[in-house]
Sequence to fold (110 residues):
Amino acid sequence: DRMANGVKVAGIEVGGLSRDAAKEKVREWARTKLIQPVTFSAPLSERRWNITLGEVGGRFDTEPALEKAFAIGKGASVWEQIRQGSQNYDVNITPEFRFNEVALDKQIAR
Fold:
């Protein structure tokens, strides 16, 4: 019922955590990322816009990434899990990022 040792989601160590604890840790990371401004720049005009990812309808799909992370090391038999118990998997799973292009266009036009 715990994440395998050495597993990371978005660079955050979740190995050894319960599914719920890992979910909260990764969701907090996503919330923080969505409020940080990102600079968009137009190559020809050299105009710049500071927009948060949240302002353009951005979201990180953390659930599929957490499911993949939780599955690591779980396919083995009980004997294999006991034998490899302290194995460090050194895996990093990156959540997919999505945004709303219409919202981005509106922010830039504004």
About this structure: The longest strand covers residues 37-41.
